[in-house]
Amino acid sequence: MPEFELATIDLVIVGLYVSMILAIGFWVGRKSKDSESYFLAGRGMIWPLVGFSLVSANLSGTSYIGLAGAGYEDGIAVWNYEWMATLVLVFFALFILPFYLRSRVSTMPEFLACRYDKRSRYAFSIFSVFTALFIDSAGALFAGGIVLKLLFPEVPLGMLITAMALLGGIYVILGGLRAVMITDTIQAVLLYVAGAVIFFMLFRELGSWGAVREAAPEDGFTVFKPADDDFLPWPGVLTGVLWLGFYYWTTNHIVMQKVLSAKSIDHGRWGVLMAGFLQLPLLFLLILPGTMGRALYPDLPDSDLIWPMLAFDFLPIGIRGLVLAALVAALMSTLDSVLNGASSLVVNDFVKTHGKQRSEKQILLISRSMVGVFMVAAGLWAPVILTFDGIVEYFQSFLGYVTMPVVVIFLGGLFWYRATATAAFWTLVIAAPIGLAGFLAGEIFELYQLQFLYGAGVMLLLSLTLFVGITLFSEPPEREALKEYVWSREAWREESRELADKPLWKNYRVLAGLLAVVTVVWVALFI
């Protein structure tokens, strides 16, 4: 076991780094004069910032702690979430993203209002605030608490979570989305470099690829595990992982807020494809280091400790402090994104649509006040994650049960003209509470045994049945009124003509196709 003690230079670097992040938040926040600049960075973000910010949103919440821990516990099967995300992002860039950006909506619930009606908007906004607090922000706080607990073992976990909540809340209150996306980029680059350094040092320690394979648990060096596997059975990739990817990468407002801030549709697409490409190396940067760590630390009491342990043992003094500071700051950044996103939902979907007219100054004050309220709620819930075997399991099981109706109403609305507003609303308000009850009964109180990815499949079928059944018994909407919100072959052919004159390297469809092929080939190597 390495000693979790930072040298003086490490502590100085941690202090300087956190101070720099807070200073950026304060400086950038001075430019937030209205709610659009605070929530959507003025819709002026270029594609590298969009791409790195999307990656950082994924990295910061669970990946650096959870993916390495899952690699240690179960092998490389957890990579299914990452490579499947790449294919989902390719699909998103090709077929969905233009509808979001052309509609000029500020929130994902607002898009539902455009496609369906206000009932779905309000229902999904409440749902999104709930999941943002109890999944995304609570998970980020818990993961950050684990890292800080290694450095300050005598301090109770609750106090460490409180400290992170305060720092993250202050930062987002000051800076808004622009500050979050700028610091996301810095942190994503630093954490990718750190992951690469640790992988190569571990590989050198073990000596060969054969030793890497031997370090994995039984049946742990394949992406497709048996159908009765407790963590990630291979049918679960189709019944759960795929649809969880669609929820997270195409409907989750906290993630989509980064896309909505893009300068143009092209910048949005390039940023999304960049994020998809950067998902693939996580096998080597996070999951395999966790797996290789089994050879060095075979009896860890908590698999989620593996990456912080590797950082302490393999990174030199100074660099260690910088990386740990970036990790904690990145975890805070996820919290910031969630708090900013949840606040934007309340302000845009409720405050602006009800009651008296308010000035932009008043709206900004309400926005920042909501951040404080949500910060407290997330901090109180975070310790509940202690009841789960790992962070990844907590996230995916909760999401698997409650988000399938969201996937159905979004994809159904985008690709089926016949889908009705009544079907969308009732599918969400009926199926989501059933999913929550299923999660509590199966995962918290253990009243029945069902692998959560299969549970997600059951919820998908239930949601689809409700959606299609209610649609067929409802009056069809007017087709002409929905043409800006539903995919059509005519629009696809028109865009094809526009792309015909572009060189291949500027044609996003060519780039998306190449990325999909690379992904499939890469995955085939680990079957």
Question: Please, could you describe this protein's structure?
Answer:
The chain contains 21 helices and no strands. The mean pLDDT is 84. The protein has 527 residues and is mainly α. The chain starts with 7 loop residues before the first helix and ends with a helix.
Name some characteristics of this structure:
single chain, 527 residues, mainly alpha, 21 helices
Amino- and carboxy-terminal Cα gap = 33 Å
Using only C-alpha atoms, the radius of gyration works out to 22 Å
Note the beta-strand portion: under 5%
The main β sheet shows up as: none
**Basic shape:** globular
Spell the H/E element sequence: HHHHHHHHHHHHHHHHHHHHH
Which stretches are poorly predicted, pLDDT < 50 over at least 5 residues?
none
* Count of DSSP strands: 0
Task: Count helical runs.
Answer: 21
The overall average pLDDT, rounded, is 84
* Derived structural class: mainly alpha
Helical proportion?
over 70%
Write the layout of secondary structure elements.
Layout: H1 8-29, H2 35-40, H3 47-74, H4 80-103, H5 108-115, H6 118-151, H7 157-206, H8 209-215, H9 235-251, H10 253-260, H11 265-279, H12 282-296, H13 306-314, H14 319-351, H15 360-381, H16 391-402, H17 404-415, H18 421-444, H19 452-472, H20 489-499, H21 508-524
Helix pairs in contact: 1-7, 1-14, 3-6, 3-7, 3-11, 3-12, 3-14, 4-9, 4-11, 4-21, 5-6, 6-7, 6-14, 6-15, 6-16, 6-18, 7-12, 7-14, 7-15, 8-12, 9-17, 9-19, 10-14, 11-21, 14-15, 16-18, 16-19, 17-18, 17-19, 18-19
